[in-house]
């Protein structure tokens, strides 16, 4: 990963950071996965577990922050090392946010439980979450392997997530138009979808940070933007089918 | 002979002592102590040295043996196997581990790759020596669901090496899941035609008992419904079969040009019935990709069938093959394009979901089961391939399959 330093404790510290990041990543992946599973199967217990687990990520971030500041103060890092450390701070912040978003999805499980008949919606949410999770997994795998040439694919996927989100958004609006009783659960599901879409964005952020750590260059800024929900409107249906 | 060689120092020392004692004669009193000294010196310096050499030789031999047999053993194990050291860095991973997890090169830090909390705990506890070995179930959900029984243990005594062995349990898990999913999907989708059939049976026995015209009509509808159920079951079964074996056999290559030609031939009657012309636009050269011919045939058949069914108004359908991708990861891109009404943008991300239909009425009329693209997606995931869909309303839709060329 990095060249060996004269002080081996320095290497140890850098390795520790990387390991903590990976552990946080594992937790974040697990939380999102379980939050969506809880949502789809209306599993309250699982949702409560996810909410409790969030504290692990908060602690992880704080620990990484402390450690990173200490390393900077003590070792005066340069070049790759400095990028590695600053990158760790940024990635841990992103992962902590991912955990928060997962927790928020879990919190909504209770409110959505009643009136769950639209199975296609849940299938859609699950597919959206799968896309976001694959992206998170790919990004963290790149963090492990440092093969930044694979990062382009990650961005492509962000495009897919946005497109899928826009499609779900439209569908939810339609359900709300059809029957005002759907509004409660649909609004919660809308936020869930938004949260998952945000998770994809954080994964893209992490990808950019990793690119910066490895190459020292910023990633070219042609990030695609497919989230078109700002323009989605649903026409009043003339006759209810 | 070896004994003699090992004992050479004693012999030499003895000889020297004797030579000294005799050569200088009894008159010289100092000669005897010198001889004794020599003897002792030889004994004390030579013996440890001999032992050291022997130990070293033993070490080299043992190390070589361990390393060699370790690698050979790892290669001989069919399950993914990873050997790592106390800092949880990969020392050696066998070919199966490469295939299963990718990027398992020596030097990779294991906790960075296996991030699941319980895997981290397992690695920690084994490396810290708290327990000698442990097992757990490791689940990888994405991109394909895989379940492993993982066991971690230390290797030998004081080698500072540890080993992770993965036993694939996906098959068993998948069969369980498949059963549950199949029943759920099938019962949901089969209920509609079944309800309609039983409705008509009731009518035929009751009000329409003596109405031959109505009877004929109802029987026709019932026949349509049963054939729909049959198609549905076929599709569900082929989807289940695909889910049963998510990995492809390695090594086989498929000639895409020939496969596409036979797909076009097999759908010739459908195209003729729909008044469609199938245009070929094949780039020069051979297009052979790794994969399973029957499965790729099904991919292109489903795509072309969709193009014929839903793009009927366009009057033509085009099939093109061209090299694509990047230099590092070349692909062969097959595009099947229709010139029909196109797919509304909001549906594109979701049309590969099971039973997702853009327009339920059209789909039913075209005898769709809602599973065609789902099957396509499954097969492509197995082939490590991607599919991109471009569509403009009123101008048709283009489905491009990007198959890795190597």
From TrEMBL, chain A:
<comment type="subunit">
    <text>Homodimer.</text>
</comment>
<protein>
    <recommendedName>
        <fullName>Phosphate-specific transport system accessory protein PhoU</fullName>
    </recommendedName>
</protein>
<comment type="similarity">
    <text>Belongs to the PhoU family.</text>
</comment>
<feature type="region of interest" description="Disordered">
    <location>
        <begin position="221"/>
        <end position="241"/>
    </location>
</feature>
<dbReference type="Pfam" id="PF01895">
    <property type="entry name" value="PhoU"/>
</dbReference>
<comment type="function">
    <text>Plays a role in the regulation of phosphate uptake.</text>
</comment>
<dbReference type="InterPro" id="IPR026022">
    <property type="entry name" value="PhoU_dom"/>
</dbReference>
<dbReference type="InterPro" id="IPR028366">
    <property type="entry name" value="PhoU"/>
</dbReference>
<keyword id="KW-0592">Phosphate transport</keyword>
<feature type="compositionally biased region" description="Basic and acidic residues">
    <location>
        <begin position="221"/>
        <end position="231"/>
    </location>
</feature>
<feature type="domain" description="PhoU">
    <location>
        <begin position="22"/>
        <end position="109"/>
    </location>
</feature>
<dbReference type="InterPro" id="IPR038078">
    <property type="entry name" value="PhoU-like_sf"/>
</dbReference>
<feature type="domain" description="PhoU">
    <location>
        <begin position="127"/>
        <end position="209"/>
    </location>
</feature>
<keyword id="KW-0813">Transport</keyword>
<keyword id="KW-0963">Cytoplasm</keyword>
């Amino acid at each position: 990963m990095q060249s060996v330093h004269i002080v081996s404790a320095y290497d140890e510290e850098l390795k520790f950071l990387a390991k903590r990041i990976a552990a946080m990543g594992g937790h974040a992946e697990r939380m999102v996965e379980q939050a969506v599973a809880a949502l789809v199967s209306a599993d309250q217990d699982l949702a409560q577990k996810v909410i409790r687990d969030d504290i692990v990520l908060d602690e992880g971030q704080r620990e990484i922050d402390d450690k990173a500041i200490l390393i900077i103060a003590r070792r005066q890092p340069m070049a790759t090392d400095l990028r590695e450390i600053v990158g760790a701070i940024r990635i841990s912040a992103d992962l902590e946010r991912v955990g928060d978003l997962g927790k928020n999805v879990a919190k909504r499980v209770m409110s959505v439980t009643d009136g769950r008949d639209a199975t296609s919606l849940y299938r859609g949410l699950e597919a959206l979450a799968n896309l976001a999770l694959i992206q998170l997994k790919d990004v963290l795998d790149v963090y492990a392997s440092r093969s930044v040439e694979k990062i382009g694919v990650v961005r492509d996927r962000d495009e897919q997530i946005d497109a899928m989100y826009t499609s779900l958004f439209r569908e939810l609006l339609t359900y709300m138009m059809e029957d005002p009783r759907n509004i409660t659960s649909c609004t919660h599901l809308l936020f869930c979808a938004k949260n998952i879409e945000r998770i994809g964005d954080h994964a893209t952020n992490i990808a950019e940070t990793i690119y910066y750590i490895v190459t020292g260059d910023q990633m070219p800024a042609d990030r695609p933007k497919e989230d078109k929900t700002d323009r989605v409107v649903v026409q009043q249906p003339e006759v209810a089918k | 002979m070896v004994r003699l060689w090992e004992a050479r120092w004693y012999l030499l020392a003895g000889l020297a002592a004797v030579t000294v004692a005799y050569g200088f004669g009894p008159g010289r009193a100092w000669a005897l102590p010198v001889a004794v000294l020599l003897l002792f010196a030889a004994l004390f310096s030579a013996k440890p040295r001999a032992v050291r050499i022997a130990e070293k030789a033993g070490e080299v031999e043992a190390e070589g043996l361990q390393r060699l047999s370790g690698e050979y053993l790892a290669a001989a194990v069919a399950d993914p196997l990873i050997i790592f050291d106390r800092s949880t860095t990969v020392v050696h991973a066998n070919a199966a581990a490469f295939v299963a997890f990718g990027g398992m090169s020596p030097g990779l830090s294991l906790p960075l790759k296996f991030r699941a909390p319980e895997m981290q705990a397992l690695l920690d506890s084994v490396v810290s020596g708290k327990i000698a070995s442990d097992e757990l179930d490791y689940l990888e959900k994405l991109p394909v669901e895989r379940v492993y029984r993982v066991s971690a243990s230390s290797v030998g005594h004081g080698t500072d090496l540890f080993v992770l062995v993965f036993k694939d349990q996906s098959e068993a898990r998948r069969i369980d899941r498949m059963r549950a999913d199949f029943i759920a999907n099938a019962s949901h989708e089969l209920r509609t035609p079944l309800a309609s059939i039983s409705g008509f049976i009731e009518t035929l026995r009751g009000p329409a008992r003596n109405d031959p015209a109505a009877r004929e009509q109802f029987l026709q509808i019932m026949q349509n419904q049963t054939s729909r159920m049959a198609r549905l079951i076929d599709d569900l079964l082929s989807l289940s079969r695909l889910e049963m074996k998510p990995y492809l056999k390695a090594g086989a290559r498929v000639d895409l040009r020939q496969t596409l030609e036979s797909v076009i031939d097999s759908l010739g009657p459908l195209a003729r019935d729909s008044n469609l012309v199938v245009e070929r636009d094949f780039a020069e050269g051979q297009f052979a990709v790794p994969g399973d011919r029957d499965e790729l045939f099904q991919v292109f058949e489903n795509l072309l069938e969709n193009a014929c069914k839903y793009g009927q108004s366009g009057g033509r359908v085009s099939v093109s093959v061209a090299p694509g991708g990047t230099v590092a990861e070349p692909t062969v891109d097959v595009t099947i394009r229709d010139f029909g009404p196109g797919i509304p943008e909001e549906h594109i991300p979701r049309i590969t979901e099971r039973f997702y239909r853009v327009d339920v009425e059209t789909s039913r009329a075209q005898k769709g089961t809602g599973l065609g693209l789902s099957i396509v997606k499954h097969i492509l995931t197995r082939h490590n391939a991607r599919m991109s869909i471009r569509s403009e309303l009123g101008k048709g839709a283009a489905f491009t399959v990007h198959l890795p060329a190597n």
